Amino acid sequence: MSAPAPGSTSFQAELRRYVHNKSVLFSPQITGVVADVVGFASAGLREGFRTALNRLTADAKVWPTRTFIEFCEAIVEHHTRDVRPAEQELIGKSLCEAYIHFAGPQHAFEPPHKTLFMRSLRRRGPRGLAASFLSLHLFNMVCIEICDNVASKMEDRQSYELYMFCVEANCRDLVTRAMELPDGELDERWAAAIVNAIETQLFQVS
Description:
This protein is mostly helical. The chain contains eight helices and no strands.
């Protein structure tokens, strides 16, 4: 028999294994990345995506010939400019996934104005983009730790994918609860409070 899809209890068991012997989960530089994401998103809402992008990369000057995924790479490079090299790859992966999620994966290779990015940003706001990044990054960190162990217990690919889908949903719920903190100014102090709220929830189940 295949292992059952995880509920709260089994997910917390995976988290207990993940946080064992850890004192922190996120890179100390993650707060700067989150603040940078929020700042870029806020500028995009105020001034338009192209204007905000023009501050980050000269590629914005050749707007018609670039796809969203190409601009995404430039944005991620900017957001991770101060991140330690050892952590840049995973943080960059999570950032790219968040931006593509907002744009619509089916539009990743289209020009930015043909994507859903600005529509998603207007609907969910800078906080929503930050939440998407943090939930994806939390899932990516947990996945690295548990995926081999989980896969070894599953008899088929479908069971494994269902399990990991539920883990991802639980990561998203953790971030959503952390985001219930009062807004205040969406700066690095706010980002630090959000990250601390996520870690507090995680360590409470260990």
